[in-house]
Structure formats: C-alpha cells, structure tokens
Amino acid sequence: MDVGRFDPLQPRRPFLLADGSLVTEGRLLTPELLDTQGLADLSGQPKETVRGNFFCGVAPYDLCWAEAIVGCPIRWKSGHVWSEPIPESPNHLENLIVSPANPWLLKLLEVTRELVRRAQGRYPVCQPLLRGPIDILSAAAGDEPSLWAMVDEPRRFRKWLDACTDAFLTVAQSWLKASAPFHGGAIEYGLFATGSVVRTQADNAALLSPRAYREFLLPCDKRLCQCFDYPLIHTHSGGLHIMLDALLELDRLRAIQVSLDYPAGPSVAQLLPLLKQANAEKPLIITGGLSQAELDLLLETLSPSGLCLQVALHEQWPLRKDLEK
Question: What CATH code is carried by the domain that includes residue 170?
Fold first, then answer.
C-alpha cells in the first residue's frame, strides 16, 4: 500500500525539439523532430529505487506511442501530447501492419535503449503507456465511426480490432526486447514479477455493452494474455461493470488494475461489490483519488490477499498521521 495526496493532472512544460526550439501550441510532432537524449532527460531518474512496498523506475516519456506508430497525427496541445484520428482512416486500418522500420517505433526503441544505458541496472526501465486494441482503434478511426462499424459492419470491425491487436503485440514485444530485464523480471505499478510483463488497457470499452465487449474485444484481450508471462489490464471504475465478468474468465490474466474515476465516477461504496468480486478471484490493484473514509472502507472490506492500493487522498480530507510518508 502507498497513500499520498491527490494531485490532479497538471500541464507539462514545453520541451526542446531536436532543432533546439521549444514545442509550441498545435505543433505536429514527428520522429525526426524528437531528440532521443532530450526525451531521456524528460524521463529523469528516480530519487530512490524503493519506496515502501514498491520499486521506483522510469519509463519513456508519453508521446501516445501506440497511436503514433499506427499512423495517428500527434500534436502538442494545452500542455499535453494528444493523438488525432488518421486522416484516411478507417480505410487505413484494413491493411494496418507495423513494420520493424516504422519511424515512431524506432524512436521508442532508441529512447528505451538510452534509458537502459543510463540506468545500468540500478533501477528498472518500465513499459511506457501503451493503449490497448480498442483504444488504438478509437484513436485511429474516431469513436463514432468505430461504433457505427461495430453495428453496421461487424466483420469489418473485427478485422480492425484484430489489426490493432497485432499492432499492440508488435510494439509491446519489440519494446520488451529493447528493455533490459530487471533482476530477471520487470516492474509494473511498482510491483516485480519474473518473466515478461505487459500492461494493456481498454478505456474505450466504456462505449460498449457487456455483450459487445464479450463478443468483440474479449478475444483480443485473450490473445494478448497468451503472449506474455504476466499480463495486466488497466480499467476504470466507471467501466468496470462492462468488463469484469468477462475478464475473470481469462485464466492467463494475472491482475486487474482499477483507476478510481474521481470525481465523475461511482463512489467507492457503489463500486464495492465489483471490487470484492475482483478481489476474490484475481490480484487487484487500485489506484486513484479517494477520501479517508473510502480508504478505510476498502481496508475493512477487501481481503489483503492479492490486494495492492496505490491511492491518493483528496485535499479536503486530512491525511491520517499513521499513513503519511
């Protein structure tokens, strides 16, 4: 368990491009504009290798890598990096293949190798944020065209999802080869496991029904789970009810991570039946903002077996002295 103070998403500072200029609002980012050393500098180094129960590491700076690799334009807007739908999408997805010579993939691997060189085994280099098949599809084609395709052209929608699953696998497996094992394993969410570890996600499953998730996306997540020793999946509390029953059927899925959607999502009390169900059958990682009372409820209700809490207390709730770091 790790308990901190709630700190909402903050804008990032503009960073230097390869030509020495600062990235500006609306700037289209391309691999040749990005300096490998500069991106490694942005990732920094951990001040400590272990904090409480968790390992501390670094990951490549988030540049919407998976979306960029499949062809989405990437721009700097409002203090963050964002992806846009592929202009020729969705037709582009019909023949989507990620080449080993893909410039964005090569840039990701360059940055990863530089981070490994700097770490020299002293701390782990962790997986960057890689969005899962449904998220890649929604980013590339747009939410609305994706959903209409699911209803009107389900065979084509499956082809798109299969292509996006292949793309995720190519990126994740290529990244694993470029990264160095940390004491024979890898770190995700500060947790150590031996063998290959991957984190996938399905944020845009929130647009589906439980039946649609099971019919279209579950086969993709099952295929991902079969390709790694320790596959984890990131979910959100607002969409957990859509996926949970199906995810618990995946024997190869090693853990479920739930981000609490504060303040828009369900309260912890409303979410508790689903969290108890997950906690009973899979290792469960809970992250996000909550109140002291909600944290106490989790500690009193959930089994400590297989439970990981990496949470932050809202500012209006004083941090209990026995939990403060």
Answer: 3.20.20.210
Domain that holds residue 234: 2-21+91-98+127-313
Q: Report pLDDT digits (tens) over 107-131.
A: 999 999 999 999 999 999 999 999 9
Total-model pTM: 0.93
Q: How many domains does the chain divide into?
A: 1
Cα–Cα dist 324/312, whole Å: 11
Strands 54-55 and 50-51: antiparallel
CB contact at 8 A, 205 and 243 = yes
Residue 67 placed within a domain: no
The amino acid at 51: R
Does 113 fall in a domain? no
The candidate with the shortest Cα–Cα distance to 202, out of 266, 155, 258, is 258
> Tell me: the pLDDT tens digits for 76-104?
998 899 999 998 766 778 788 999 999 99
Residues in the chain: 325
